[in-house]
Write a structure and sequence with these properties.
The protein is an alpha/beta fold. GO terms for molecular function: glycosyltransferase activity.
């Protein structure tokens, strides 16, 4: 790492993993005290957490926080997908003007692809974290899907052939070789999906079990994260309805994470249809820090039944940290990873009948998985390794 550089981290989104990624980078910076300066540009709501990260840290003086105004946040978040890329990019140029960094890291590069290809040039080096490359996925049938696939590939080619982008850190490791083959200028690096791990005590697990009022002698299935229609909750609930009565009584499902009011109303209606034999516990709130891991430690299986998900999912890494097998969608990199690394089992997550068959197997036979490979995945995705990979190449 060139320790004399002034590096700017930019993200207009601050929920979920966005805050976590910034936290990992800030923590690594202040604890290792590299020379130079780190500038964090994001929503005002992150400032309190930012201050807490710097408390009593010897490297705190080299880190600066610049809040993005609420007006600017509203401007980009309210934009259409066609124009948002350029509006976001214009904010990068605006907020990097005064600090004049040597290098800007776009924390969510997927939003910036069109603008970094066709928009104005940046006055400094630019790198990005690429979450969901799908150029290497088989294009789904239908004219609309095919045209969308062609558009994405043309954009990606334009981005990688234009000078200005320096590094692309890719969370989907299966895409790295393909990106390198397309890229004459940009350096492509596989990136860990970082998770901070804690030493959880049995007392903490039992305290949560009591809080959630989990019934004894049941398999605990955890569906964790921002709860929306992409998580596959509806086909899962339909699958639970299809289970025989005895197996319904062997399941406790924990839905843990924030949820929008309209979707919550829809899910609560679906839960009522499942009936009383399946225990369904709704922890509809944001869960942070070590309490996240306590939820995973408490579970028997972690659900990642995402609907046509592109890229990696941090819940798989969190499951690995706690040594818990994953029941995942068979689609894309996520399905490939779970299947080839023997991290659990996969199924067609769009089909209630297919999910029902997998759940029955879990409840009657258990499923084989590799504890060794779960530990290896956890080790490969530490928050320290994530930060080192980024800072060593900026």
């Amino acid at each position: 790492m060139n320790r004399a550089k002034k590096i700017l981290l930019f993200d207009t989104i601050i929920d979920g993993h966005h805050a976590d990624y910034l936290t990992h980078l800030i923590t690594y910076w202040v604890e290792n005290r590299p020379e130079g300066e780190l500038i964090v540009v994001t929503q005002q709501s992150f400032q309190e957490q930012f201050k807490a990260l710097l408390t009593d840290k010897p490297g705190a003086g080299t880190v600066q926080f610049i809040p993005i105004s609420e007006e600017d946040i509203a401007l980009v978040h309210g934009a259409s997908m066609a124009t948002r890329s350029f509006k976001e990019w214009n904010l990068v140029l605006k907020y990097s003007r005064t600090p004049n960094p040597d290098h800007v890291l776009l924390m969510y590069f997927d939003l910036f692809m069109l603008a970094t290809w066709l928009g104005r040039s940046a006055p400094c080096a630019v790198s990005g974290i690429y979450f969901r490359p799908d150029f290497h996925y088989k294009i789904r049938p239908g004219l609309k899907a095919q045209l969308n696939g062609i558009r994405k590939k043309v954009t990606l080619n334009g981005v990688l052939k234009r000078k200005g982008l320096t590094n692309l850190f890719c969370l989907d490791h299966s895409a790295v070789d393909g990106l390198r083959a397309l890229s004459p200028h940009v350096k492509i690096w596989p990136l860990a999906d970082p998770v901070e791990s804690y030493t959880i005590t049995p007392a903490e697990i039992e305290q949560l079990r009591t809080k959630l009022q989990l019934l004894p002698n049941r398999r605990v299935l955890l569906l964790f994260g921002h709860l929306d229609d992409r998580k596959g909750i509806e086909p899962l609930l339909e699958a639970l309805k299809l289970l025989p009565l005895a197996q319904q009584k062997a399941v406790s499902l924990v839905l843990a994470g924030p949820i929008q009011p309209d979707f919550r109303e829809k899910i609560e209606s679906k839960i009522a249809e499942v009936g009383q034999d399946v225990q369904i516990v709704c922890a509809f709130e944001e869960i942070k820090g070590r309490q996240i891991q306590v939820h995973f430690e408490l579970s028997d299986y972690v659900l990642a039944l995402y609907q046509n998900h592109i890229g990696m999912a941090s819940v798989v890494v969190r499951a690995a940290v706690s040594g818990k097998p994953v029941l995942a969608s068979d689609f894309g990199y996520l399905g490939h990873l779970v299947q080839t690394e023997e991290l659990g089992a996969v199924t067609d997550a769009t089909s209630p009948e297919a999910i029902r068959m997998l759940l029955q197997k879990v409840l009657t036979e258990k499923i084989p998985y590799s504890e060794i490979n779960l530990q290896k995945l956890a080790d490969r995705n530490s928050n320290v390794y994530f930060a080192e990979t980024i800072f060593n190449h900026l």
